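ugh ok so i messed up the first submission bc i forgot one of the chains. this is the corrected input, ALL of the components this time, i swear. 392 residues overall. if the numbers dont match what u have on ur side tell me asap before i send this to the collaborators (the ones from the other lab, u know who)
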Amino acid sequence: MASQTAAIDLPAGAIRQHLIDPALCIRCDTCESACTTGAITNDSVNYVVNAEICNGCLDCLPGCPTGAIDNWLPVARAYSVAEQYGWTELPPPLELGLAAAVPSPAGRGAPASAALARENIFTREHPLLAEVVESLRLTVAESPSEIRHVVLDAGADFPFLEGQSVGIIPPGADAQGRPHIMRLYSVASPRTGEAGVAGRIALTVKRVLEDHEGAPHVGVCSNFVCGLRAGGKVEVVGPYGASFLMPDDPAANLLMIATGTGIAPMRAMLERRLGRAGPGRQALFYGGRTPGELPYHAELAALAQGFLDLNLAFSRVPGQRKQYVQQLLGLRHELVAQMLVDGNSYIYLCGLKGMEAGVLEAFAAICAQHGLPWDKIGAELKAAGRLHIETY
Ligand code: FAD
Ligand code: A2P
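and heres the new structure output, hopefully the right one now
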C-alpha cells in the first residue's frame, strides 16, 4: 500500500509513497529496527521501503536522526525496492501543485515547548567548511580510550539547538570508490555557542579503534575528526534532529541518562539551563570506565554543587565492582519514579546502543516496585515528546 500518508487530496491516479532520502540517510538502522511490518530493508548502500508492505504506521519516524525518513512524495507509480537500491538521491516529485516533501504527519515528537529546530541548512552538495578552533583530549593520556572535545567555528549561518547533531563528511572514498557517507555527532554546546562564542560548536568524539564486538576496526570519520587540530578544516552538514530537543520551560524536570560520548547533548542542555534555572530539576546518570576516562568529569562535578543531581557509574575502577547507569537508576528509584510520573518531566537517553535495553528494563522494574504501569507511562511519555532515545 503506497498511498497511506497525509490527508492531502491527490489527483486521480497519483499516489503518495513513503521513501528514504539516500542523501540524508546515515544507515544507522533505526528505521529498519522500528519497522514492525518488515517493509524497510537495506543493502550495503541504501535503506528502502517496500510500498507493497508498508502500512503507514509511522513507527519508523521518531528514531530517524536526520529526517531522511520524512518523505511522503506524490508519485505517478510506486517505486520498487530494486529501483530505490540504485538511487543516490530522491527522484523529483510529480508536479501536483503540492509541496515537494510533506512534513511528517506525526510530527517529530519534540517537547511541546521546544524551540523550532532548523534542519538541513547545509547539505552534501553545499557543505559548510568549518575551521577547528581547538581539540582537547578529555580522557587521560594513559587510557586506551581517546575521547576529544573538538570545537569548530561554524560562523553565523549554522544555527543549532541543544540535542541536535551535525554531520561530518570525512574526506576520501570507501572501498567501492564512493565518497564516504557523513557521520553524525551530537552538539555539546548550547545554542549560544561554545564558551559563549556565537557560531562555535563543540563535539565530543571518541576515536573508534574497535568494533562493538571488540575486533580491531579503525573508524573512518572518528579517526579523521580526532586527528584534526586547530586550523584544520572540516566539511559540516546539517544541523539534524527535530525531536531530541529540550523543553523551553524552566519548570520542566530533566532526567538524563548517558554513557561515554552520550554526554554531549546533556552537556549542551545543562549549559543552556545554567543561569536560567527555574523550579525544574535536572538529574544526570552518567556511566564511564573510570573518573579519568569520563568526559567533562571536573565540569560535571562543579555543576553538582547545587545545580545538578549527579549520579556517576564507573565500570573499570580497579578494586571496585563494575557499575552501569541502569544499576544507579535502581539505587535512586524514588527520584526516578517521581520523575516518571511527573507530567512535566523529560527523559533523555544517549550513548551506547547496548545501554538502551538495560535502562528501559530499569524503568520497568522501578515502576513495578512503586506499583506504576510502565507500559502505559512509557507510551504516554513517547507520545507527549517526553522520552527521547539516541543510541549508536
Ligand atoms: P566507521 O568506520 O563508520 O565504523 C563503524 C563501526 O565502528 C560500527 O559498525 C561499530 O562496529 C564500530 N563502533 C565502535 N564504537 C562505535 C561508536 N562509539 N559509535 C559508532 N560505531 C562504533 N559518536 C561520537 O563519538 N560522539 C557523538 O557525539 C556522537 N553522536 C552521534 C549522534 C547520533 C544521532 C548518531 C546516530 C551517532 C553518533 N555518534 C557519535 C557515532 C558517530 O556517528 C559514528 O558512528 C562513530 O564516530 C563511528 O564512525 P566511524 O566513521 O569512525 O566508524
Ligand atoms: P564497560 O567497561 O563494561 O565497557 P565506552 O567507554 O566503551 O564508550 O563505554 C562507556 C561506558 O558504558 C563504560 O563504562 C562501559 O562499560 C559502559 N557500558 C558498556 N555496555 C553497557 C551497557 N550495556 N549498559 C550500560 N553501560 C554500558
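quick check: The first strand starts at residue 15 and ends at 19. that seems consistent at least. The pocket of adenosine-2'-5'-diphosphate (ligand 2) is lined by residues 145, 259-260, 287-289, 315-316, 324-325, 352, 354-355, 358 (CB under 6 Å).
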